[in-house]
Amino acid sequence: MGVSQDTQGGTVRSVLRVVRGQVTSDGAGVKLTRVIGNASLGDLDPFLMLDEFGSDSATDYIAGFPDHPHRGFETVTYMLDGRMRHWDNKGNSGLLGPGSVQWMTAGSGLVHSEMPEQQEGLMRGFQLWINLPAKDKMTPPRYQDIPPEQVPEVSGGEGVKVRLLAGRLNGVSGPVSGIVTDPVYFDVHLDPGATFSMPLPAAHTAFFYVYEGSAVSGPERKNVTRGDLAILGQGGQVTIEAGTSPTRLILLAGRPLKEPVARYGPFVMNTREEIMQAFDDFNAGRF
Ligand code: CO
Hints:
binds cobalt (II) ion, Jelly Rolls, disordered N terminus, globular, seven-stranded antiparallel sheet, mainly beta
């Protein structure tokens, strides 16, 4: 397999594997597609889970996600369409509307709900879970609630628009800051046939997920179509070329933690003992 050089001298990342999500339900019965965190792709260090939700049928989402705990990692909700109301047991609340992002560092733990703020219409977006290293798992909970107007939209070249949730492109930084895995989270919109190329930190785990249209990527020009997640290999540069229709995808990268993962439902720690402790703390009302 050839390793091609880009103009800046770094290697272009290959597509190692293309994975399709699995339709499932979570919360009180919300229909969604789980792309990371299922039998075919358990995790992608530091990424623990990726769900895509998208429906214009209220029965698929109206039940929402009533009170549930989290400890030991971060949840990132990116809304494309629709509105979700968020509450937690520390007195925080917020409304997530189209184009907004909520970056929640659950840390030592909280109990929250995420419920649709609409009775009908399209609800579409993503929830991503990102792990925290051992030293930060018990950090106090922190929110970064970013309204759509604070998400910069930057040109990524001819026919390419990029919304920067986290990370830098062309000297512009996304609004999310102070995240230990130093993540990149871009929403990339490509015109038919347009090409997007950028350097990613070489040691970061990286992937993209196509949610509209199709693309080819890497030196081998692998096809990645709507509903596919492309796991990228080592290297510096990512290259993505849209197919014959308008194409939209999310591009993610983050520093891998390389730590043991002990995971049970909404708790993600390093050891089984820490999971037992999380249950004890939750049951005793210490969240
Ligand atoms: Co949650």
